[in-house]
Design brief:
Blueprint: H1 3-16, E1 20-21, H2 46-49, E2 59-67, E3 83-92, H3 97-111, E4 119-124, H4 134-143, E5 150-153, H5 155-158, E6 159-161, E7 166-177, E8 196-209, E9 215-228, H6 229-236, H7 249-258, H8 264-282, H9 291-309, H10 317-328, H11 334-337, H12 339-373, E10 378-379, H13 381-391, H14 395-404, E11 408-409, H15 411-432, H16 442-461, E12 468-473, E13 478-483, H17 490-505, E14 510-516, H18 517-522, E15 536-542, E16 546-549, E17 563-573, E18 576-584
Helix pairs in contact: 3-4, 7-8, 7-10, 8-9, 8-10, 8-12, 9-12, 10-12, 13-15, 16-17
Bound molecules: serine.
């Protein structure tokens, strides 16, 4: 069995049990600036866990692409991954503990045919916020879990919440016994020795933790479950690490062939970070110095560093990306459509990093020299920050290089300085955009309609393959990102501007209708992230000019827009152009 077979079995099983299969949300959360990436299957579902009605009903199942970067420095060992897939099933105020546990048990023992002896489970031991979960333990016993395979632990192990505030509750976790000898007589599923591996987590979400740390009862009782696909795949294949499964094996082999230095940790880091970078770029992230872009930059740069460590010629990177995409595309077919841009983004970032490295390395050598002459072993945070800020040298790289020299870096001080710096620049950019980010005022509404016209005009003037890749609206201007392989010529810009103004002059009515997503797509409606939309969608049409899946709001008639003017056209990132435009009366 391969990972994709486990995924299909899972979705079929829960579909058979009355669940609707919903699409994976993109790795980059929509409309949620509080998190950088989707980190769990439940994250895109939070509004529904809090009571909003989901258009697909109360029983849902999906596979969700996730990225967790807290453990990024652990990657290279035998289990941590930044990108992974989480299979999940949800009850939104429908079934609760009994049915959830029964289905999990049936799936593990019948569908995946895991012998009961290999399974253990844990339940919440209870505290002042919530009672001991005897109910789950009893259900486990009833379905056939031996009593001595049922454990109770406290909040640290058996309570789940995303972050500090939000829907949460006690969970029951399932563990797979790898058959390794117990590390001591106290060895149990809470022990990290590797004998027991967590495979599935069912959260019984009936609480809400407020930002004051109080627990209140949710109006509906939900179930949120998450099963880590790569891990399950590895266990079922009897492999020691995910790198030994079909997901990573071809690339690991290729790295071994190419490398002049034998270093399994570096091979794993390259394979893992390459996969994550490919996935996040495919979902729209681009390298930059802040937030998501910075994480992606770190992934690509760290991977490049380790290619160097392995003494693999960096010209091999393109082939490695292609190989990786060919391995992953069965599970993620969208990668094939985005192949060229993925390659371009990674290779450009690699080139930039190579330049940075040579400057930074020279500076770093000076630091090492002076430290050694002073007999110091800790590189202070200011120096690390200077290397970062002036030489573009990421702290992780400084740390890696420092280790080679038996030096350490003051990461804490660096983090403090970095935060200070970020706060300053954030305050600056807030100042710049004062007056409403993505508000729904009259002016923003006009700009919103203008983005649809611009999108349509670009398609007519430049290429029908142009699609929106992002947009940002303030009361002062609109910004529109789109895929395009060249800088627009003055003539092209003029044509686009003229066409939009022509449509404004024609006073075309803007209409909205509700329809099934399928029908909307069939009718040729434009849509940025197809997966993000529920089955019923709203479609805004501007005469025959434009048709887009969109939440609105829009003006009633293009005549309301005034005059459209392109102020600037520039590169936003590899393969993506950006237009800034204004509407004037
Ligand atoms: N939210 C839980 C987790 O991420 C179960 O899906 O483990």
């Amino acid at each position: 069995m391969k990972a994709i077979d486990i995924r299909n079995k899972y979705l079929n099983f829960f579909e058979k049990h009355g669940h609707k299969v919903i699409p994976s949300a993109p790795l980059i959360p929509e409309n949620d600036p509080s998190v950088l990436f989707t980190t769990a299957g439940m994250q895109p579902l939070v509004p529904y866990l809090l009571g909003e009605k989901h258009p697909e009903g109360k029983r849902l199942t999906d596979y969700q692409k996730c990225l967790r970067t807290v453990d990024i420095d652990e990657v290279g060992d035998n289990r941590h991954l930044t990108f992974f897939e989480m299979l999940g099933n949800w009850s939104l105020g429908d079934y609760f503990k009994e049915e959830s546990i029964k289905m999990s048990f049936e799936f593990l023992t019948k569908e995946l045919q895991i012998p009961v002896e290999k399974l253990s489970v844990t339940c919440f031991a209870g505290d002042e916020d919530a009672p001991r979960d005897e109910e789950s333990a009893k259900i486990w016993e009833e379905v056939g879990m031996p009593k001595d395979h049922i454990y109770f632990f406290g909040k640290d192990d058996n309570w789940w919440i995303a972050g500090e505030e939000g829907p949460c509750g006690p969970d029951t976790e399932m563990f797979y016994d790898t058959g390794k000898p117990a590390c001591s007589e106290h060895c149990d599923p809470s022990c990290g020795c590797g004998k027991y591996v967590e495979i599935w987590n069912n959260v019984f979400m009936e609480y809400y933790k407020t930002n004051e740390g109080k627990y209140t009862k949710l109006e509906q009782k939900n179930v949120d479950t998450g099963l880590g696909l790569e891990r399950m795949n590895m266990l079922l294949q009897g492999k020691e690490t995910p790198y030994d499964t079909e997901i990573f094996e071809p690339i690991m082999k290729k790295l071994q062939q190419l490398a002049k230095v034998d270093n399994i940790q570096s091979r794993r880091i390259v394979a893992e970070h390459l996969r994550s970078s490919i996935m996040v770029i495919s979902d729209g992230a681009r390298p930059s110095n802040v937030d998501r872009g910075y994480i992606l930059r770190r992934l690509i740069r760290r991977m490049t560093r380790h290619l160097n460590k392995l003494q693999i010629d960096l010209n091999e990177l393109e082939g490695l990306i292609e190989l990786n995409i060919s391995v992953l595309c069965e599970m993620y077919p969208a990668l094939l459509d985005n192949k060229e841009v993925i390659k371009q983004v990674i290779l450009e970032e690699k080139d930039k990093f190579v330049k940075t490295l040579s400057n930074g390395e020279r500076e770093f050598a000076k630091v090492v020299k002076s430290m050694k002459s002073e007999n110091k072993t800790l590189i202070d945070g200011h120096t690390v920050f200077k290397l970062y800020d002036t030489y573009g040298f990421p702290p992780e790289v400084t740390k890696d290089l420092a280790e080679d020299e038996n030096l350490q870096i003051d990461m804490e001080e660096f983090q403090r300085l970095y935060k200070e710096h970020q706060e300053k620049s954030r305050a600056g950019s807030e100042q710049k955009f004062k007056g409403g980010l993505s508000g729904n005022g009259e002016i923003e509404t006009k700009y919103h309609t203008a983005t649809h016209l611009l999108n349509a005009a670009l398609k007519q003037v430049i290429s029908k393959d142009i699609h929106q890749r992002g947009s940002n609206i303030t009361t002062e201007r609109m910004r529109f990102d789109f895929n395009c392989d060249h800088k627009l010529t003055d003539e092209e810009k003029q044509k686009v501007e003229d066409l939009v103004n022509e449509w404004i002059k024609q006073e075309i009515p803007v209409t909205v209708e509700e329809m099934k997503k399928e029908d909307a797509i069939k009718s040729g409606a434009e849509c940025m992230f197809i997966e993000k939309y529920p089955d019923m969608v709203t479609v805004y049409s501007i005469g025959d000019v434009s048709k887009e899946l969109c939440g609105g709001p829009h003006v009633k008639n293009t005549g309301e827009l005034g005059t459209f003017k392109i102020k600037k056209e520039e590169a936003s990132s590899a393969g993506i152009r950006r237009i800034k435009a204004v509407l004037v009366d």
